[in-house]
Amino acid sequence: MSPPIGFTLRRRTLLAGTAAAALTHSMTRDASAQTAEAPQPVGPQTSTVTLVVNGTPREITVDNRVSLLDALREHLKLTGTKKGCDHGQCGACTCTVNGERINACLSLAVMHDGDEIETIEGIGQPDNMDPMQAAFVEQDGFQCGYCTPGQIQSARKVIEEIRAGIPSHVTGDLTAEIAMTDAEIRERMSGNICRCGAYANILSAITQVAEENA
Amino acid sequence: MRAFSYEKPANPSEAVARAAEVEGAKFLAGGTNLLDLMKHEIEAPAHVIDVNGLGLDEVTETEDGGLRIGTLVTNTALSAHPRIRRDYPVLTRAIAAGATGQLRNKATTGGNLLQRTRCPYFFDTNMPCNKRSPGSGCGALTEGAFSRQLGVIGTSSSCIATHPSDMAVAMRVLDAIVETVTPSGMTREIAVEDLHLLPGDTPERETALMPGELITHVRLPAPVGGTQAYHKVRDRASYAFALVSVALVRQADGTGRVALGGVAPKPWRRADADAQLPNGAAAVMSVLLDGATPTEENAFKLTLAERTLAAMLKEA
What we know:
- The structure holds two protein chains of two kinds.
- Chain A is α+β, with helices and mostly antiparallel strands.
- Chain A has two domains: 46-122, Beta-grasp domain (Ubiquitin-like (UB roll)), CATH 3.10.20; 124-212, Orthogonal Bundle (DNA polymerase, domain 1).
- Chain A has helices at 11-33, 68-75, 120-123, 131-138, 148-163, 182-188, 199-212; strands at 46-53, 56-63, 94-97, 100-103, 116-118.
- In chain A, helix 4 packs across helix 7 (199-212).
- Chain A is globular and about 55 Å long.
- By secondary structure, chain B is α+β, with helices and mostly antiparallel strands.
- Among the domains of chain B are: 5-50, Uridine Diphospho-n-acetylenolpyruvylglucosamine Reductase, domain 2 (2-Layer Sandwich), CATH 3.30.43.10; 227-315, Enolase-like, domain 1 (2-Layer Sandwich).
- In chain B, 29% of the residues lie in helices and 17% in strands.
- Chain B has 13 helices and eleven strands.
- A five-stranded antiparallel sheet of chain B has the order 4-5-8-6-7.
- In chain B, a hairpin with a 5-residue loop joins strand 4 and strand 5.
- The longest helix of chain B is centred in the C-terminal third of the chain and has 16 residues, at 300-315.
- The N and C termini of chain B lie far apart (48 Å).
């Protein structure tokens, strides 16, 4: 597992500082906009949860509003899971919870007490890559790399989902075995956007892994 | 996102009791729609009741040969269920036509039915919207507004938003029944047909559920057989909302059922339009879309719906 990232002064830190200043402003606005009659929280606004991340239980206390994605990135410093749109449209935050891929941005950390979460850091490391990671390198399945952790998480699960017989929009006979076709893989990967447009090579990487362990 | 307190009750009666006593409480299931809306502050619950601890995640057989689906069964699990694939294929097809693998893994059956419109004027908090902010006007009906995606029938001068679900269109064509528990702890049943309300002058009222009422199951009657299909027309091949979608059940004698998605504030079906099925797509649509009030931008949906059904009848 990667060591926690020490946030030194660099562009990202500077931007975070600027964002904090903007936040102060918007909080002032929100407070003034709230009417006296608006319902108020009736209990603690923070929760303590244990996430089993890549096999290790990690207890954290977070604001109830913290998404699973932010819990991983900001609280556990596992920045391999990326924040793209933060609205479930791009797939950059894809990770697996109890073995199923989800958008970590559209789930709250507080909903996952005791859940098994696997992030890209748990799949493989540079000196010990998962076959899907190796295939992405071999097939040149990325350019800038930002969407890649999410692509790899989805890609691994797509193969499993096809083999488990979960039908997709392009599946023909719903009662027959599902074939590992390009159309099936493309359709199932539609929740992962690649702005660099590496789709053809991503497809090659997934196909390679599917054929290797056929 | 506004601050909220959180709890995760262990049974449905506790969940509805808490919803009844806590002002500003909201149920949270998969969260794929609610959390998105909370980030936009279109939804701002003061208290969140997480219903994921209630069980309600199984599909069981009913005495009449139908199925009873727990409200927390995920879209993926429902679409892949062997009985659904064999006996209710229109439902598998509709679910698989919506969203993405990641979202379907999280989204639930009850949550899918209760998801809110994707009208861009509902989402843009700088724009008027009678649904989001009653009395503020309809951004989609202002001069030069973009209404290509929006409704053509069942709409009103207050709101032309559509219901975005694919799954609900199949549930409608299959005559599904929603089972609920009310805040007082009573159970009741609502036909899917009656679950969603038309906007009229109160587009903020979207369903027949009372405040704090919880969907516990969705029941499918015994299989109706026939050839079943769901055809969704959209701007790209995957992960887009329908311009028009058609759910079809067609029997060997040419009779059957038709429901439309993407055109109305609820899955759109009429018994007298079903009766026209033996007479072809034009006959069906002349009844089903009778009284439509499209905008200039979305009038194409009327033609598209008829042609989509015609293409399906050719295949079925």
